[in-house]
TrEMBL record:
This is LIM zinc-binding domain-containing protein. Residues 99-159 form the LIM zinc-binding domain. PROSITE patterns: LIM_DOMAIN_1 (PS00478), LIM_DOMAIN_2 (PS50023). Gene3D superfamilies: Cysteine Rich Protein (2.10.110.10). The keyword Acetylation does not apply. Keywords: LIM domain, Metal-binding, Zinc.
Amino acid sequence: MKWFDKIFKPLHQKVHEISHNSSSEADEELDRAIALSLSDHYDDKPAARDKGATDNDEALARALQESFISEGPSGFSSGFSSGFPFGGDGRTRRFSGAHVCARCKKTIGPGRFLSCMGGLWHPECFRCTSCNKPISGSEFSVSGNDPYHKDCYKELFHPRCDVCNLFIPPNYSGLIEYRVHPFWGQRYCPSHEDDNTPRCCSCERLETKNSKYVVLDDGRKLCLECMDSAVMDTNEGQPLYQEIINFYEGMNMKITQQIPMLLVERQALNEARAHESNGHHLTETRGLTLSEEQTVTSVFRRPRSRGFFGEMRTESMKLRRNCEVTAILVLYGLPRLLTGSILAHELMHAWLRLNGYPSHLNPVVEEGICQVMAHTWLESQIGSSSSSSHGAAKPAPHQFDTSKLREFVMHQIAMDPSPAYGDGFRIGQSAVVQFGLPRTLDHIKLTGDFPVS
């Protein structure tokens, strides 16, 4: 082991001499001492070396190197070293001569440098991918192969609430938990489901911090997009009503009687429903087909301003029964496409009564086939104008993409979880697809049920 003494003793002496020097000077001197000691030994006896000796020498040099390296910082995403590189896992790496910066590809000289993410960096070269400023702290975040300041990472990747525009807080388990609307994708804090945050009575989106909703006279709230095509009074709804009557006639299902159609407030609609003995309705009723004589308060004049500071006029009407159907009532203030789908649904109730169908059909069958007709009318509205029946010169800047609202209403019909409206629609739609609408209607008239294969 003479060669060991030749390497180790001078090196030990050299380390002792430089132990009082500064950190950077000590590291540089230590590198040079190791290299010179190994070089002197190799130059003395080149002919006597064999492969085994070479391996032993390298192993010894590596052991000596590691014995003079302190452990790097632990528990951090990154750290500083001065002289020898440390990996991101806190372990020392084998000395390899000159170090190259992972960013600028230039040699890293003696002094401080960063060792993280599998590479070595000049401190000024290790930069945030978002703000491009150096990351000087001991902690940072990573997305893919990109480093970020923790605050920059949070700003980019931490989910914000679409309602309050704040970062969604973690739950009791420390996990980010939020709710997402199944159609619109609106992402929000779970607390907004219980803190009385308003929803649009048409599209069901939550009112956001930056977009206030219009308050209708009966307490409902309407977003500005749905407000753009809202049908606000009975007179305004008549052209749409006639359009849907023509739709039925085009399907060889002519409505032979003149049936009054009124737009009403929510309270008037609920009161009318309470008097109906044969109705099968959702908790929130939007339309009703009357079969009894009643007095109904309808909306006959809309407020004069979009801000709803004008006075809404209503009038009471005594409805007399001239046929099997007395009148059709629809909730006012809903956008044209939603109002039209409600009218298509209610007109199917009327058509069944006027054409001798059983008066006490199973709700799954009756409500189901009415929803099929509402869905069919919506399908016919591809490319229709989003403006209301009275029209508008230019669409408002916040106006809906009409196709999205149409898709939403169709989605609500198709995904309805209720047995009568939801299951009834899905069974009825399947029957119509398989047998056609005329055969399906004939089978319902004869058996009171949908046909099955």
